Each structure stands twice: as structure tokens, then as C-alpha cells.
Amino acid sequence: MDEANHNLSEAQKELLRWHSKLGHLNFEAIQMLLKSGSLGKNAITAAAARCTTPKCASCQFGKARRR
Q: pTM value?
């Protein structure tokens, strides 16, 4: 689903993939894991460890409140 989004960089797409794989863990914790090398070491994970965090549509929907 996020592969079709042209507004995200490859690093942000990788970060969103890990976010959904890890049960929607917060992005700061995922980036800390990426920096430590626990989730693998390659160019895309290194870039995902320092990119700006994207918005997760599922998390935003879950936090929404009716007015």
C-alpha cells in the first residue's frame, strides 16, 4: 500500500514497513532500533534511522475523536 505513495521517500517507506511489522510501535523507538543495527544493517535502514517520520493513517484513525 505504501509503495504506491509517491510522496514518501524510500527511507520513509521502510520506516512505515517496520512500524506496521512491529505492531505500530512509535517511530522514535523504531529509529533507535535501526540505529543500533538490531533490525539489519544496509543503506536503506541507515537512511530510515535518520529520516523524518511519516504519518501512519491507521494510527491517526485510532487516535481520532468524534466532535
A: 0.86
